[in-house]
């Protein structure tokens, strides 16, 4: 476990020493006005990121060969420039394998991933439709896919943008969808839950989360809807006897889950399960985005009577935390 | 109970006799080419409406003084003109009070209204917030309001457009919202359920449902959002000690429940409960609209492989009934 | 070849006899006011469609077992009802296999399909990129796919809505795209032409054209963009050594060819070839829609100074035929 | 009266002394790189706002207990940092009650508020409809409401964003609406003028103008349309015998005065008076926004041939001052 | 003056005789089921239009050579078919020049055109800017243009769609604009009034009003904004010494008077006068459209409590006539 | 020719000397914190622009009388402030006429303007329609217009934003349009090419390109569509016997070439040639914008796997350079 986090550094007094592991998010060679070369770095961990400067390039305590994406151990002191904190770095070396847990270096879910995964599997276990059960099991049994599924963020920025975020979002949706499915006789529960589990599968390849969260070029050009549809179609085609109509319905749910053409779904939901999926997916994303904004307000020291800033993923709305405003929470 | 319904008449052979109670939806005096006066009527009941003609105006068996909105007993025979069925009416008299149940004359919920009402009250009973409980109880204890609440349709045409439709929609939403509230710690359950019960209260005066479903002039000019907000505000102001912040939140939920400015909400949802309400309200309306469309397809004899026509309340989408298409239903 | 077409019948005098082959587009049993049963038919061929009535159902000269989609030989006389022409049918029998060419019964391209196909193949022949050449060849060598490709309409209604319309549209686009590719050094010609040939491949399964032009249920739920992408992806995956980046680009072109999210493309064109394809596809469709409208005006007897009606596929615009208005054409 | 204004300071040379009253808009404690604490302030008055720094926190001439919203007397010198002017503050004390006129500290109307108020009352005096006259009089006779009405800005930023701006806007609109009412026989003058006086009444609670102009939380959640409608409805309900139809019309005018759903009106104008009100309100706001922009250009030293920057409240348009461009004004 | 109008005929009993002058709006030769030829006509006058039939084509009392656009004298009797009234025509001859006033045959303004024209000229007379006065005078002195200006409708359908409608609309706008100009010091009155007089000048060639109201081909392709701008530009260029900046402003007002790009203005209003013109033009058109709708309701026998149908030119809104609803009018 | 360009300076080390000709784009007198006056300049040439500072205002080697828009010779050294390069200027004088080529000071086409002009003229030479040939020739024979046509940029920022850019765009479009015209028999080639040559003619007065690229006030108020239409209409009116219908069509093409009302075209394309022009104009602009973005990426050192930033003129899309990504180019 890491001893010190970016979030701690922010409150350091000028000159206070630190020593810890960080992920290199940017490395640039620059020159001062007086022509002195120095390194400009951005170092990050799961709590945030911060600028750092290495002034003594020839110091033997400064490693030469590290790059963007490497994990390093850095030692130095806090330093303020124009009211912004920087890290003045005196020593820097590559981290040894195993010295630090990678999940400490990128934001990640606060839930227990193994428990989430068991919840997911127990939902699959409950399916009564053998074809859908076999399909989902086949996909989740693929070790590489399962590993990625447990790690992937749900988005680059909008909601659940942390390691394990996709799984956290899907398990939340499964619970929700299960309750909704029993409420409407029109809905085929297993089909709806299958849609929940598979709808964002394409994100496993649309996004990369090795060093920060980025879109891959393939992700930009094809999008997770297409990537996921293709993945699922291939899995279905490998299952002899999977009913063709059921295949069409499963694919339709993935294709239409954004709910509107202008959000990148090439088809509008045309079956009850697809309609329900698009509503619940959107609701869960927005509820989580709200929770994230409210946490941010508390972290930033805003009072209970202050609304949030304009939230991009909620149409620039400003939000109010009901429970805090009513004084129900126990701050 | 009525013996014969419009829906039955549609399959009558030419000249077959009928005798039943109907609601007069239109009454016009017209003249034939050869200058003969006749009555053109539209008669309806809960299963639909049909054109009727009275040729012998001076026949003593034809009542003189009936008007639009009256319930009549009509006797005559089926008659086809240009392939469309008409009622050729030989006898017509005003119905006696009590001869026919009004709920037979307008479409109405298939649920037991008393049971729905008990479900609604038991949700209120479960509230832990005393202010909200008192507010909702005060409103529902008003006998006139409660009577209207049990009768009102939820809309003129789009969804739950039948007597008792509003109550049916609200009880469905309560069940759903209750499940969602327990899923998200961010949500104040009693506030959300209060929003569900009160969000469409203005429809009690926006719509009239005496003779068909119509907008009142007041409803057209003010809308149910404003009418409902005013009703609730007045109720709150009559409760000494109701917390002002809670009042603002309750009113905000009614104001924002359409979710978008262009749908007539003057404010976007800015608190978690309002966001959840707007999603669930929309989802329940669309699920019901789907169910109605699928029933219509079956009534019209469409096969399981045929999609519905373009559905106005679902952006002109065509829909497919999953369970029928997969052959799961037992037709 | 057929002797008589629907378009000829329209000018028949009352009572004039006809005898010809037609496709049954609708068959309904109905009853007159006086309770006499009759058949109401809609018969069509490549020039249009017309209502027909069979009054003597028990006449042995009237076949019993024909259905929607059958080809029949009908004999009877022209008859006018309310100023609209009908066919009064006295004899009707199933057509023998080979008696009539199916292309006479649905609208079809005026071009020689074999010649269009050769043009298409010679474009493929000219490719210098061996991977793209192999991909396209592999697809077009599939006999079932090739047969469908030669028959499919390009759309249900909007443009090139006739048998062979897809092929006609693609060959027109190939010529155009070839000229544009040599104009912009930025463009990879083979990639652009591959996009042209494959962009609408999904229509082979989105549409059916056995009896009139209809969407299949699969077509409605998945759309030709998804169906085509999957078809091409499967073909690529069967080619060992196909470069993965090239695969991504080919799929991107199909996904983005509608040019806008709201037209059902899940991705906007992000490479030069995709941008060019979306422009040229749209231009060719609209030029053909204009030509079709102008032909219709001439057929309907409109003068050169009259604009067309409002054209749905061109945003309800009214159009003017430049050459006719300037008197350049030789009508 | 104040001796020195922010607008004067902007032209001060480095080191020139100042001494004056200001409103504290922001107060933050910060630390320099060398760990020295200092105060960062934003001070404002009716002409603008400026950053100030207090370096000697322990100096007895620097008050300890002032907060955001206090009026202070500050003495110091002008100082430039990175080409931006700052106030270097050496002495600072709380202002005594009565030392400075609050209207000097926030931007306020250049008109005589008492005269504007008399104009407003004389319009009311001219009403011939006794019900409307009584309604408006009842509202304006409430001393708290009248005081707020005379002080409120018309908006936070868009137009008439200064103390007294609402009254100024309403009186301008009354004059205009009176002229329009006599032009169209369709218009009921008293109803139109009533709409003008009451349409923005909700802004008295939507906005706060104690320290800068801000939205209240209630204002954010309910909006001035709802707040104003409720205020007026309550006033009407307190008047026995007020005609119900007239009440509906008055409320409709407030509800619909933004003219479009997407501007937050839950209803479109459906009566002539509401339509006229929405047009004139929008026109007056935009004419005033134009005048404000043109004044700003002159203040900033732009020439008569230069257009304004992009104006947010006019769809990012750039504007030209006709009279200046034609050289008609006498600058 | 005409003795009998279409509006009178509508209430005729079967077989009642008529004899009057009408404009031929359509002439078609048709054939009955039994192969008998007849003429189908549409005859109109300023009160409406009606279908007519001539059965005895060879009757010497029926003129042979009349065409669409001719004025005819027709004699016959009222006849009902399918509940719709028709004219059964027994005699028909061309009208003699002078027998009937053309303004009786197309809908036209109820105002005195000569008086409206004098009002227009007296506004011009009041101009103090000599350049603008000369420009407007030059244009209105052109006899052909002045004649067309006095006759033109303001639109094909939306508002003031009658002969003299343009002049009526302009004079109403002048009065209104004059009042607004004196209210805002920012506005150059003469420039605003010039914009009012010239803004729709292009309609003199965009529309034709000889036989019904139609767009010309030139009108369709160029639009009245371009046609009017060109007309005015040419007039300005013929005036030596007209200030170039003033020319730019006048043209800008015509170009921008629709107020939005999507309404066909290539430029948004960027000067105060153009902004005011676009608001007032829109307001006057909508007030007149409202008045027309309310008149239609009275004519159709709707009660004061009934709203209008959905009005196309007012975004499908339904409207309520305030004065009638309040019972103020004396019907 | 210039010896040194802004683009070279960017890579200069601190303190390295330069000496070259530049265009003055901004000149401001400022004061330091310590009250020392200095000059802040922005100097530019065809490769970019850079900030410069003159500290010794009284040095006799610094010219006094230069202004924005002048060409100067400046000598000094590179200097870095906050990691941004500046020019520290020690000597500065006005350039002598002829010392520097103006095309070196603003970005300009990389093509040979004389050759482009000959290509344009040879297209005109190929016209078979004598009226269109005479019209275009008449316009291009005007020496002032021809000089401006050869110099004008095609846009301020979006595409072809360099001297000669308009001509470069038109010649590219002519080649393209010629190929398209021969592909569609519906198209009148000469009319289409006339539209290409004249569509942006108004830009000669909408934009100014003396010092940087700016809109003129006339350009802002009227727009190049109106300015160009008027220019062409005047030219046509000077040609006796030019067919009126042809005039309408030519003007329609200019008016409608932006293709959509919301892009500032007052009319949608309604003839085949106008539709084709609007497509090709848009395609050529976007292809050039793509090429410009890809060049910028290479200049900025982005790798072949990196997509461009969000491109404003392509709806904020990010783009990928196909050929570089596939490794086809030989960088």
What count of helical segments of chain A does DSSP give? 11
General form of chain A:
globular
Task: Give the strand content of chain A.
Answer: 15-25%
Major sheet of chain A: size, sense and barrel closure? 5 strands, mixed, barrel
Show unreliable segments of chain A: none
Question: Helices and strands of chain A, in N-to-C order?
Answer: HEEEEEHHHHHHEEHHHH
Largest interface, Cβ cutoff 8 Å: A-B, 42 and 42 residues
Rg calc of chain A = 23 Å
Percent in helix of chain A: 40-55%
Question: Quaternary state, please?
Answer: homohexamer
Distance between the termini of chain A: 28 Å
Record the strand order, biggest sheet of chain A.
1-2-3-5-4
Helical/strand content category of chain A: alpha+beta
Nearest-integer average pLDDT of chain A: 90
**Number of E-type strands of chain A:** 7
Task: Describe this entry's structure for a reader.
The structure is a homohexamer of 331-residue chains. The first copy, chain A, is α+β, with helices and mostly antiparallel strands and 331 residues long. Helix content of chain A is 41%, strand content 17%. In chain A, a hairpin with a 2-residue loop joins strand 2 (37-45) and strand 3. In chain A, helix 5 (165-183) packs antiparallel against helix 6, helix 6 (189-198) packs across helix 10 (272-299) and helix 9 (244-256) runs parallel beside helix 10 (272-299). The longest helix of chain A has 28 residues, at 272-299. Chains in contact: A-B, A-C, A-D, A-F, B-C, B-D, B-E, C-E, C-F, D-E, D-F, E-F. Chain E binds chain F through residues 217-218, 220-223, 225-226, 229-230, 233, 248-249, 251-252, 255, 261-267, 270-271, and chain F through 217-218, 220-223, 225-226, 229-230, 233, 248-249, 251-252, 255, 261-267, 270-271.
